[in-house]
Amino acid sequence: MYVLIGGAGLVGLSLAQKLVELGHTVAVIDIDPNACRYAREQVGAMAFEGSAVSTEVLLEAGIRKADSLVAALRNDALNLAMVTLSKHYGVPHILARMRHSDFAEPFRLAGANHIIGTVELAVSTMVNAIEYPQVESMMHFDQGQIEVLKLSIPNNCYVVGRTIAEIAQDSRFPTGSLIIGYQPHPHEDLMIPNGSTVLEPGSTVLIVTKPGSLHQVIDFIEGCK
Predict the structure, then answer these.
(1) For residue 160, how far is the Cα from the chain centroid?
(2) Which of 109, 112, 135, 166 has the fewest Cβ atoms nearer than 10 Å?
């Protein structure tokens, strides 16, 4: 996959590094020659020096053949311009980094398939870490209508030794919640469990639930025998 990234700041370069490691062909655009040099020499990406909202630079960087484009510039207005140009040149998959939520609707209207609110994402992550310290990680879907959380199973909790089916049938397990992933040991791969999967102490589960059921799910999973 050919991925074009506008902006070789911390976000752009970190994303480029990950994508290169995954085997994608990556090119970044930035006005800073030092950032472009770093992208080439340290990240292994192609780099084009110039404005990411210049049609000449975008065409030179191969925007017409890009499978995905990420607008990760430092300014929302510039990112919006880059999204608009990307849509014009027929890029099938467009992502936009957003600093201020006022730009959410303009980004959508311009053709962004995914909008990543970096400030809101950081704040939400920190709030979750404070409010739910026992949760290893949490992801939000459908504008926060669905939560997926990762929880460790304490040694003496109620669910140890029980099957997924038994847990699902327990009246204390919130309706609409579901265990969708299971990792028996930190060094083992995450697996998709079935009804007969038994939860072991020290294992990890992935649970999908509604925001209003978070506390109930956590209390149930971590409840002592």
Answers:
(1) 30
(2) 109
Alpha-carbon distances, residue 94 vs 85, 106, 137, 181 (angstroms): 11, 14, 26, 29
Residue 19, CB-side half-sphere exposure with 13 Å CA sphere: 23
> Rg of the chain over CA atoms, in angstroms?
22
Beta 46-49 vs 68-71: how paired, if at all? unpaired
CA dist 89 and 165 (Å) reads 51
DSSP class of residue 169?
Answer: H
Q: Is 131 exposed, middle or buried (0-12, 13-18, 19+ CB in 10 A)?
A: exposed
Helices (H), the chain: 10-21, 33-38, 55-60, 76-88, 104-110, 118-131, 164-169, 214-222
Instruction: Give the three-class secondary structure for 118.
Output: helix
What homologous superfamily does CATH list for 132-222?
A: Regulator of K+ conductance, C-terminal domain (3.30.70.1450)
Domain chopping of the chain, boundaries: 2-121, 132-222
Angstrom distance (rounded) from CA 138 to CA 181: 13
Per-residue model confidence as pLDDT tens digits over 125-171: 666 666 667 777 777 676 667 888 888 888 888 889 999 999 999 99
Asked: is 2-121 a CATH 3.40.50.410 domain? The reply is no
